[in-house]
Amino acid sequence: MPRFHVPGPLTPDADLALPPGAARHVQVLRLQPGAQITLFNGEGGECLATVTAMGRSDVRVRLGEHQAIEREPLRPVRLATGVMASDRMDWLVEKATELGAAAITPVLTERCALRLSGERAQKKRAHWQAVATAACEQSGRNRLLDVREQLTFQELLNTAGSAGGTRWLLSLDAAAPRLHTLAAALAPDEPVTLLSGPEGGLSPAEEAAARASGFAPVHLGPRVLRAETAPLAALAVLLTSG
Asked: Where would I find the beta strands (DSSP E) of 31-165?
């Protein structure tokens, strides 16, 4: 059944005009009055809705009962990653959403291929949030992955401790503990902040600073993974039980 994100309250038996994006999608699918769809507002739960009217540019639906369905993992994992080239970052946001990450913070590091500021950074954040919303629609999540405001590397280190939970740094240091070994010892609901670098990884100075600020290094294995692959492999380890 098609799923659509609709911001705002979803009140049972209410008559609702779908927002433009969802309305266009319903029209592309050629749904007719009487067809059922699923709506969620990103705050938890979902509800069935029945299409009642199809206009040239608008679609109206009647909402059914709210269903308190959750598909979130027990463990909240917040990903902080060096900003990558646009297509790779899009792919990372999409797949991190599907895997169940709670939030993603783009971080400006020394080796970032894409450097954004001001209005361009805000537009890109909105774009990534739209990517995450579409991935929630596809994957069945009823809570949106939170694409947070871009931070400098130092800003990330200054604020990471306030989030609580475990902080890990994806490292190429072969002497670092293996992630899957440490993850097995965590409580199922232990929050984790995971720091990963961009293409080329974090610089030696950045990795040293992250360790000094409380990020413990973890290792994924003997192969070198791409910047967009490594955090997804880590998320799969951390969230497969959820």
From this structure: 36-40, 46-54, 59-67, 77-82, 103-108, 146-147, 151-152
